[in-house]
Each structure stands twice: as structure tokens, then as C-alpha cells.
Amino acid sequence: MSLSVEKNLRKAQSHLKAGEFAEAETLYKAILLKFPKNKKAIEGYQRVNSGVTAHKSPSFEPPQDQIQALLRLYHNRQFQDLFANAENLARQYPNSVLIYNILGMANASLQNSEAAIWNFQQAINAKPDYAESHYNLGISLQTIGKIDAAISSFQRAIKIKPDHFASYNNMGNALKSKGTLSNAIDCFKNVLEIKPDYTEAHYNLGVALQENGDLDEAITCYQRTLEIQPTHSDAYNNLGNALKDKGAWNAAIENYKNSLKIKPGYAEAHCNMGLALKGKGDLDAAIQSYCNALKIKPDYAEAHRNLSLAKTYAPNDTQIADMDALYESELTSDEQRCHLCFALAKAHRDLKNLKRSFIYLKEGNALRKKLLSYDISKDEKLFAEIKNRQPLNLNGVPDSLDGTCEVTPIFILGMPRSGTTLVEQIISSHSQVTGAGELEFVRRLADELHGSNSQVFRDIYLKKLGQLSLGNGFVTDKMPHNFLHIDQICRSLPEAKIIHIKRDPAAICWSNYQHYFASRELAYSCDLEDLVKYYRMYDDLMTFWYAHYGDRIYQLDYDQLTVKQEDETIKLIDHIGLDWESVCLSPHKNKRGVHTASQQQVRKEVYTGSSSQWRKFEPFLGGVFDGLSGPSTRSLET
Predict the structure, then answer these.
(1) What is the C-alpha separation between 156 and 138, in angstroms, rounded?
(2) Are 498 and 549 contained in the same domain?
(3) Per-block average pLDDT, block size 10, for the chain (638 residues)?
(4) Residue 623's CB: how many other CB atoms inside 10 A?
(5) What is the DSSP letter of 605?
(6) Which residues pair with residue 149 across a beta bridge?
(7) Angstrom distance (rounded) from CA 166 to CA 163
(8) Pairing between β-strand 474-477 and β-strand 497-502 as defined by DSSP bridges
(9) With 0-12 CB in 10 A as exposed, 13-18 as middle and 19+ as buried, what is 496?
(10) Within 13 Å of residue 459, how many CA atoms lie on the same side as its CB?
């Protein structure tokens, strides 16, 4: 017998032991075609077809009718009968991948995740190259929060079966939950290359793009989802969210209504509609939407928090009792309790129960910090890297750039809650200015390019800004944290106007502390000591930027603006290079929607005194603002 025949016999035997029957059968057939009387090949071929292993153990898989019977029990949710029958079959067929896979599916349906994981692992032991078992194992691992292990299982399934679109889809969801959005987006796109009309992949891609700030692309994905499945209520809801984020309030509200036509008890759609109504200034309708959400879902803690921000509490308000009961419940999660703490802090602040308000505020922030796993050392490292990063253009001369600038960016930056929203409302009241709100473009481009290509940064940023300009020559970008990227802005966009807003440091820190922020970017606001450290790092970085780009940065003092509104506004508009328009003195009449926590304040006339509000809580602060409060740490001519 030749060496190649012996080699193929060993390969066939290996496939047989692994349960890879088709592969073993192919090899045995090939041998028998050349050597019809080969005894080992004949025995092997008989074992494949009779289901008997080299050790004379029972067949690997039960007859097809018995597998179908198990599947019928599974689909009919007759789990007790399924387990009894499957366990009996497993004794006869201990190496059956199908039995263990079905048992795993049944345990997963019953949320017995650990049992399901064991079942799928047994199935994989029986047949390592069975893609479905790796996929199912990934789903169960994902369910219990073992995201990295789940991703590994999905990757193994794809390696075995490259067109396993369900593994790509769920791996995308797993990556999205980790915040690795670009990889998640790639996974969903891979799904759609394999299965172009897969509804959930279009929807999931929309969600990932929306989280990544790519709103127009997300909208296209939701619209495609609805073309394929017109009754997809979640797609209508998220389409509403994307439109809301673009400030298209009426279109957003229509999509929430469409979602609710399909699914009337959709509490989240009611709550989101409340946010859109509040954004466009219809406070009474917003309150009604939040109440509708709570009628459907009384334990909807986020709706309680949103409602708390839209109303002023009076004694004996029944919502407070509802929140108290939910707060005390053992079934309430940390995330729910966090929302409730912020809502109860607001309620007791309205009722002048300041000590109780502070206790709830402190607990809510502590829970938020825990949920976000925030450690200020990460930001300390970031600030140090920014100052040491190369290339820094410390002579203040912009890079050599090509291309004209059809829209002039106006960057309004500084610490959050420093007055950036009011300043944007003032500037965007001008007929030649479009207010674009808090844009993620600078941060994302800076992260992608690592500060290495000013021309590419310029081209992409101006293109994106131009799409938001509504035909105006000036567009505001009011992302406060753009102060981290002043070097990139100065090198890439020499035409840009940079407005830095200063405000009383203690007022800024306190205002941040008493607000719940959805963004992880503001996790430092969940602890007063972290806030003070972060403020000092910000102030130090601004000192650094002023030393090199002082002539590019216009400093506006918020408190001076509220005291000398007309003088400061005239100087601001003149600095931007616009002709004076008196409408800029009435920012409260600006009809554009506002997304930030300041949306209700900016609908009032400019008022003074807000920077001293923190002093009401000074007895509970333990002197954390000592040495911080007072005049701005910088006194520059503007």
C-alpha cells in the first residue's frame, strides 16, 4: 500500500473521530475507487454509514425523524418533554452535536445561560467545525455580558463558514456595546454584502452610525429598513431620534407618531417625543408625552428624570411619591436608581429641601461614575499627551493649505455649562449665521488623523460643515470640548473664529455636577473632586494655548455678558466680522431648537445671578471649591 493511501486513511480516521462524516466519507470513497478491496477503507466507510465509531460506540446522530421531533418540541416551547427526550437520546448518542445544540437553544430560551453555554460547548467538543454551535455559544456569552468571549465565538463561526451573516450581525452588536463603533459598522456592512435585504442589519447599521454621529447615513439606513419592513416600530423611533439630533423637530415627532401607530404601548417612543417637543419649546406637550410614557411603564426611571426637568414641583406632587417607591424597591437597578436620584434631587431643589436634594445628587453621581467606570487618571494622561504631542504648530502660523473656505466656522468652546449655548443662540440669531450645535466632527477627525494631516482635516471638516450651513456663510460649532483640539483647528482652519467662554469656576463645576449627562465625555462631572481637578487641567491647557495662539482666541466672560449684554454682544459680533443686527440682543426669541441641558434657560431673556446659585449648597460641599471660586483665572483683553 502506498504512503499516500496510509496518509489518507489517517486523515479519514481523524475526521471520523471529530464527527466530520462527509469529509471522512469522501476520503474513504476515493481510496476504494483505486483499491476496492482495501480492508481499512471498507471498515471505515461502513462505520460512516452505520454510525459506528472505531470504538464501536453508537451512531453520532439520531435518525432525522427524532431530531425533527425535538425541534417541534422546541418550537412549541414544550421544554419539559424536550429535556426528557433529549437526555434519553443523549445517552444513546453521546457524541451528537445536534442534541446538545437543541438542548442549548432550549436552555437559552429559558434564560438558563450557564446551562446553555455548557450545552453548546459539548456540541463543539463533538464537532469542532460546526459553525452554528459557535454562533449559539456567542449569543449565550453575549447575554451574560462576556462580550470578548462572545466576539471570539462569532469569529470562529465565521472562520468555519465565511458567509455566516448572523455571526457578523451579532458580532457587530457586541462590538457596538464595547464602543468600538467603526468595527461594528464594518460587521453590519459585511452582513449586507452577504444578505442585502437583511432588515436587522440595516437597522443595526443605522444605530451604530447614529452613535458615531453620522446622522445622514443613519437616516438612510432606517429608511431602507422601513422600505423592507414598513411595520418596524423601532426603526421609526430611531429615525425620529436621528432627526431630533439634527434639530428636525417636526419630522422627528411625525416618526414617533408612526412608531406609536404600530406599537401604541411603546413607552420609549413617547419619552423621545417628549424630548423633541421640549427641544422645539412646546413644554406642556413634552410633559404630557413623559406622562404617557410613565402610564405605560411606571418604572421608567429615565422618563421620570426627563419629566423632572420639564416641570417645577409643588408640595404633595404625586410623582415624588411614585419615585420614592421605585427608589426603595429592591428590583430597581443601579442605572434606574441613578436616573431617579437626579430626578429626586431636582424635585427637592424646587421644594427648597436643599440638604435632601444634595444627598440624592451625591448618590446619583456616585452611581453614574460607577456605571461609567470613570477614572480621572485617564484624563490626566490625555491632557499631558496633548501638550507633549507632535506636531504642535507653536509659532501660530497655519500649515500650508489648499482650497477656499465657502463657510467660516465659528467655534464656541470652553468648559460645559460655561454659557456656550447662550452664546451660540446670540450669534445664530444673526441672519448670516447657522447654528449647528454640538458637532462631533473635530474630535472624530482628530482621532482618525492623529493630527498628522491638516489638509485632509480641513477638506473633510469644511465639507461636513457646508452640508449644515443652510446657505449661510458662517456656521457655529458649539462643542465645548473642542478646547482640546485648538492646535488642530488653528493649523487646519486659519479662517475660523474661536470664541472661548469663561465663567466663574465654582459655578461651572456645580452646574456640571447637578446635571445628568448621557455622554461618557463628561464622566468627570460625577465627582466634585474630579471636577475641580478637571477644571484646573482645562485652565492650564487654555493658558498653554493662549501662549501660542492668543491672537486667534477671543475670550468672552459669561458673567460680564449678562451684566453688560449690549456692549459685550456688539463687540462679539464685530470680532466675527459681521454687520450689527439688533436681533442678536434677543437670543430668547431664536426659534432654532436646542439640544443641551440649557435649552430652557436660553428661552428666557438674558439674566444675571446664575453664577452664584451654587452658594445655596455651600454648607454641604466640604470646602471643595475653596481657592477655585471667584473671578476668572485669566484677565486678558478681548
Answers:
(1) 10
(2) yes
(3) 73 76 77 77 72 45 87 91 88 86 90 90 88 93 93 95 94 91 94 96 96 89 97 97 90 98 97 94 95 97 97 95 97 97 98 97 97 95 87 57 85 96 95 92 84 83 90 96 94 95 95 93 96 97 94 95 95 97 91 51 56 89 83 39
(4) 7
(5) P
(6) none
(7) 9
(8) unpaired
(9) buried
(10) 8
Q: Closest by alpha carbon to 258, among 240, 278, 245?
A: 240
What would the grid cell of residue 27 be?
476520503
Contacts of 340 (CB under 8 A, 6+ apart): 301, 304, 305, 323, 326, 327, 332, 364
DSSP designation for 74: H
Short-list 182, 170, 160, 115, CA closest to 139: 170
C-alpha to C-alpha distances, 24 to 20, 42, 449, nearest whole angstrom? 6, 12, 51
Are 363 and 413 part of one and the same domain? Answer: no
Helix axes 267-279, 283-296, angle to 10 degrees: 170
Cross-strand partners of 497: 410
Residue type, 287: I
C-alpha cell at 442: 473635530
Q: How many residues does the chain have?
A: 638
Q: Which residue has the cell 421608567?
A: 300
- Kind of pairing between the strands at 433-435 and 474-477: parallel
Q: Which amino acid is at 63?
A: P
Is-contact 158 168, C-beta < 8 A?
Answer: yes
The domain containing residue 10 runs over which residues?
Answer: 3-47
The answer as to whether 602 is a domain residue is yes
Residues 323-340 as b or e (16 or more Cβ within 10 Å = b)? beebbeeeebeeebbbbb
100 neighbors 19 (Cβ within 8 angstroms): no
What Rg, from alpha-carbon coordinates, does the chain have? 31
Asked if residue 441 and residue 366 are part of one domain, the reply reads no
Query: Are 518 and 441 within one domain?
Result: yes
613, 510 Cβ separation under 8 angstroms: yes
In what helix (H) or strand (E) does residue 220 lie, and over which residues does it extend? helix 215-228
Verify that 398 and 364 share a domain, yes or no. Answer: no
Three-state DSSP at 514 gives: coil
Cell numbers at residue 317, please?
406632587
Secondary structure of 15-35 as H, E, C letters: HHHCCCHHHHHHHHHHHHHHC
- Residues 48 and 25 sit within 8 Å (Cβ to Cβ): yes
- Distance CA(376)–CA(63), nearest Å, equals 61
Q: Is 555 helix (H, G, I), strand (E, B) or coil?
A: strand
Cβ atoms of residues 407 and 476 within 8 Å: no
- Residues whose CB falls within 8 Å of the CB of residue 254, separated by 6 or more in sequence, listed in order: 240
Q: Is there a single domain that holds both residue 441 and residue 544?
A: yes
Q: What are the distances in angstroms from CA 460 to CA 159, 278, 511? A: 36, 32, 34
DSSP class of residue 619 equals G
Residue with cell 452664546: 423
Residue with cell 477656499: 404
Q: Is 482 within 8 Å of 497 (Cβ atoms)? A: no
Question: Which DSSP helix (H) or strand (E) runs through 47?
Answer: helix 39-50
pLDDT for the residue numbered 632:
43
Task: Tell whether 441 is covered by a domain.
Answer: yes
CA distance 386 to 546: 14
Nearest to 368 by CA among 144, 527, 508, 145: 527
CA-CA distance, 51 to 148, in Å (whole number)? Answer: 37
Q: CA-to-CA distance for 124 and 594, rounded, in angstroms? A: 53
CB 204 within 8 A of CB 169: yes
Say which residue the cell 446553555 belongs to.
116
Strand runs labelled E in 503-611: 553-557
